[in-house]
Specification:
This is NAD(P)H-dependent oxidoreductase. The chain is of the alpha/beta class. The protein has a single domain, classed as Rossmann fold. It is 35% helix and 19% strand. Strands 1, 2, 3, 4, 5 and 6 form a six-stranded mixed β-sheet that branches. 41% of the residues are buried.
Length: 202
């Protein structure tokens, strides 16, 4: 069976090469996925001109169509976001809005093209909000056809009202490391099941 692939859409607000806690945790997730024979790549969305809108292609200069090609080629989509004001980033919201166009894209049997693809969430922040952000991402990603595995997220929330970032830590907290390993194992398992036995026709 061909190797599974994963794509991280890193929705940090910081353009490359600025250090990013979101990038660190999503990279750790890709390392965990590699242990389950899943190869992965990352796109830092803010580095690209992803236009606002809900269409597959918003016209000349829109970077989303090329990113979407990578999304559609991957078995596992990882949507990674920092937490700002208790919410997912504006970049993550734009990605969700662009994914809305998938509701109009179906195969010959009426299934969304995203059916059979697994999605995970990565959330970081030195304030509360990870559970809320995961809930929003789960609902939106499921709405547009992705399947969420059990324990389909990994996150880290630092103490509120402090300036410590995930990338400032001397070591990964045990709870976050455990969540990362579980998310990777469950996503790889589910992606293989869906590849071998796709959803029925609508």
């Amino acid at each position: 069976m061909p190797q599974l692939t994963a794509l991280v859409l890193n929705c940090t607000l910081s353009p490359s090469p600025t250090p990013s806690s979101t990038d660190l945790l999503s990279s750790q997730l890709l390392e965990a996925l590699a242990g389950h024979d899943v190869s992965g790549t990352t796109v830092r969305v803010v580095d690209h001109d992803v236009r606002p809108g809900v269409e597959l292609d918003m016209g000349e200069g829109d970077a989303w169509p090329a990113i979407r090609e990578q999304v559609m080629a991957a078995d596992i989509l990882v949507l990674a976001t920092p937490t700002w004001l208790g919410q997912h980033s504006s970049v993550a919201q734009r990605v969700l809005e662009r994914l809305d166009a998938e509701l109009s894209e179906t195969d010959d049997e009426g299934r969304l093209l995203t059916f059979g693809k697994v999605a995970l969430a990565v959330v970081v922040g030195n304030e509360d909000g990870a559970h809320h952000v995961c809930a929003v991402l789960y609902q939106a990603l499921n709405d547009v056809g992705f399947t969420i595995p059990a324990n389909g997220c990994t996150f880290w929330n630092g103490e509120a009202m402090t300036g410590t970032d995930y990338r400032d830590l001397d070591e990964t907290p045990e709870a976050t490391a455990s969540a990362t390993q579980s998310a990777a194992a469950h996503a790889a398992h589910l992606a293989r099941l869906l590849r071998a036995d796709p959803y029925p026709a609508s």
